[in-house]
Amino acid sequence: MENGTAIGLDGTVDASSLDDASLDDASLDDASLDDTSLDDTSLLDDTSLLDDTSLLSDTSLLSELERGFGVRHAADSRLVVLTAEVVHRSRASLGPDGLASRFGSTSAAALLTEVGRITLAEGQRFCRVAGATAVRVSLVGERMPPSYPL
Q1: DSSP secondary structure string for all residues of 68-84
Q2: Model confidence at 98: pLDDT above 50
């Protein structure tokens, strides 16, 4: 972090790495971030955060960022799993019966571009990550673990 703040994997802030100016005495008691479960709607329902984030304390700001990135990581993981299925159903061996072809796209990445309103480069990136994290099949047809499991 910019001011040297260290946030541990368990969601706590290392108070020894904090500058005196980064937290006032009242917020030092709040130095550990809440380890709450992810609620996909918690960030969207709290419209006060959208109004004025300057009202948040340092720890509240970091807590909200942590929760927001957690939601984003969960969503990205789900999108990668779904993309792997789109890639499988759009494989070239299916020809015009492939998913992408039936919906008028030239490839799985192009289909993702249309459905997700993302760039082609991002669609291709999703396809590459999906290929690396999907279950593989050997030449003799046995299932193999993914190169990079999620």
Answers
A1: HHHHHHHHHHHHHHHHH
A2: yes
